[in-house]
Amino acid sequence: MSDTPDGAPPSVQEVIRRTEEEWEALQQALSPLNEEEMAEPGAGGWSVKDELAHLAAWARGLAALVRRQPRYPPMGLAAGAGPHTAGIERMNETIYANNRDLPLASVLAELHAAHEDALAAISELSDEDLMRPFDDFQPQDNRPDGHIPILWLIAGNTFGHYAEHRETITQMWSRK
Questions:
Q1: What CATH number has the domain bearing residue 139?
Q2: What is the Rg, in whole angstroms, of the alpha carbon atoms belonging to the chain?
Q3: N or C: which terminal CB in the chain sees fewer CB atoms within 10 Å?
Q4: Given a cut of 50, is residue 2 above it in pLDDT?
């Protein structure tokens, strides 16, 4: 995430605005797909439904993170299953396994609820909080990169994540 044009870090309102923009773009990408299409696995094995369950889990984790609550259990992961211990791939495999058999309606409901929860958690922050290090929010994680501003994790689990998976979903269906 780049700074604002005047060089100041983005505000909470800017983060929320960008998150809502990417959320709307994701919804537009999903709108032409029916239930069968959303359940059909793509080349990588995941369906659109699986991509959406993944987004929901990471949004839930983000909400817990910025509220200084244990991050991984709301994602359906063990308390110590962080990226630096379990690895992102293993975390994502577990999220996939936990959600692959859920009906689409449940996944969509959880995605919407997780998105709203993440927005609510972000809105509880001050603009200054965005530049505070990850370790201030999750000191128990002992991350080697714990000094990075929480803004980068917010971006990576909201608007940046929505954009990444929207592109994946769009590519899945542009090949058909």
A1: 1.20.120.450
A2: 16
A3: C
A4: no
